[in-house]
Amino acid sequence: MSNSPIYVTKPELPPLDEFIPFLESIWDSKILTNGGPFHKQLEDALSEYLGVKHIALFANGSIALMTALKALGVKGEVITTPYTFVATTHAIDWCGCTPVFVDIDPVSLNMDPAKLDAAIGKQTAAIMPVHCYGVPCDIEAIQKVADDHGLPVIYDAAHAFAVEDKEGSILQHGDMSILSFHATKVFNTFEGGAIVCNDADTLERINRIKNHGFVDQTTVDQIGTNGKMSEIAAAFGLALLPHMDAALASRKAGDTVYRNGLLQVSGIKCMPLANTVTHNYSYFPVIVEGKYPLTRDQLYQVLCDAGVHARRYFYPLTSEFPMYVDRPSSAPLNLPVATKVSGQIICLPLFSDMTNEQLFQVINIIRDNA
Ligand code: T4K
After folding, report:
1. Inter-axis angle of helices 16-29 and 37-50, to 10 degrees?
2. Which end of the chain offers a freer environment for a tag, N or C, measured as fewer CB atoms within 10 Å?
3. Ligand 1 atom closest to Cα of residue 84
């Protein structure tokens, strides 16, 4: 058995010899950024691969989230989930808005639409749900509440690359969806991200905001920022994209090995997979229930001691961080499901070239402690 550490994820990389020609081309052209040829090619390739019409590339998912809020002119309260990476909450606050937390559904671990209506007030300006672990939110129910109140919906789809429901890409729902192409994501460009939106005018506005608000060389029509993806990141994405089908298939196989291997372990609960969804298997979260002899934190430590670096995504809740904890909606009584799940969740390592030996190393530690 190998002694090398097993991390929660391992970045997806194309064969080096397939990336070198892209580098040579950049060295020849000397176009390094600001919407060069690879940037355009990656937008086209992703829009085809993901089945979406309008996509804008970004330097990372966080700046994409902020740009989305700015592009929709959101000012006031934004209703969101505390069960997410802190970037979701920070992006809202960074844009001068106030995050208002609603609880999550105990099965999907996404924003509970049944609790949404009660959180909406006079100051509510938008809804920002998260497709956590790539599991689709209850899109119809969220949209119904949004429509009833005339609110835009911005999906944090950082985990949801290539996830589809019966209508196709889940990125098509709501007013905008944001992707992250961070090194740890299913598809990466080292650092990177994107916004998917519904129309060409919005896309143009987004593209201006991410380039300082420039309309042309001498005209700036709004406050902008630098959210641009570089040519080297876009080139990397182009080299990686042809390998994504195989990578997703390998993740699916790893997911199956885990599910079968953990089936009989009392107190270890895997998340259900809806058969109407094309999943991307971006994470392998399990809930450590009271029936399991170890607490979540004890299991986390046992795994760490054995060189298996699982992660407690998402613990703490973002509402528990010091800058948010005093908000009224952060009260644990308002967030009973999220609070409970955050204390029980552990994401086991899953990456496309994870071997059966590695998968069983993790499974056996969990079984041996049962
Ligand atoms: N919204 C949501 C819902 C998100 O999950 C995220 C990001 C965002 C928005 C914001 O998108 P970005 O602005 O990041 O594009 C990681 C990532 O940094 C972050 O992108 C991600 N979510 C979050 C869930 O996970 P950390 O602090 O847990 O990552 P780190 O550095 O501890 O890496 C985890 C493991 O991955 C390491 O133990 C080893 C392995 N690793 C990591 C890196 C960076 C590698 O093998 N190679 C690497 O280069 O946040």
Report:
1. 140
2. N
3. 3
214 lines ligand 1 (CB under 6 A): no
What residues does each domain of the chain span? 16-242, 244-368
* Own/partner pairs, 10-13, CB within 8 angstroms, 24+ separation: 10/351, 10/352, 10/353, 10/354, 11/183, 11/184, 11/188, 12/186, 12/187, 12/188, 12/240, 12/243, 12/244, 12/247, 12/351, 12/352, 13/240
* Nearest-CA residue for atom 36 of ligand 1: 9
Q: How far is the CA of 161 from the centre of ligand 1 (A)?
A: 15
pLDDT tens, N- to C-terminus, the chain (370 residues)? 557 899 999 999 999 999 999 999 999 999 999 999 999 999 999 999 999 999 999 999 999 999 999 999 999 999 999 999 999 999 999 999 999 999 999 999 999 999 999 999 999 999 999 999 999 999 999 999 999 999 999 999 999 999 999 999 999 999 999 999 999 999 999 999 999 999 999 999 999 999 999 999 999 999 999 999 999 999 999 999 999 999 999 999 999 999 999 999 999 999 999 999 999 999 999 999 999 999 999 999 999 999 999 999 999 999 999 999 999 999 999 999 999 999 999 999 999 999 999 999 999 999 999 9
318 Cβ below 6 A of ligand 1: no
Q: How far apart are CA 95 and CA 306, in angstroms?
A: 42
Full-model pTM: 0.98
The preferred substitution site among 12, 86, 184, 351 for testing ligand 1, maximizing ligand atoms within 8 Å of CB, is 184
Best of 85, 90, 280, 353 for a ligand 1 pocket test (most atoms within 8 Å of beta carbon): 85
* Cα 12 to ligand 1 centre (Å): 13
- Is the beta carbon of 177 within 6 A of some atom in ligand 1? no
Assign domain 244-368 to its CATH superfamily: Aspartate Aminotransferase, domain 1 (3.90.1150.10)
Alpha carbon nearest to ligand 1 atom 46, residue? 10
What letter represents residue 57's amino acid?
L
Ligand 1 within 6 A of CB of 335? no
Residue 298 CB partners (closer than 8 Å, separation 6+): none
- The class level of CATH for 16-242 reads alpha beta
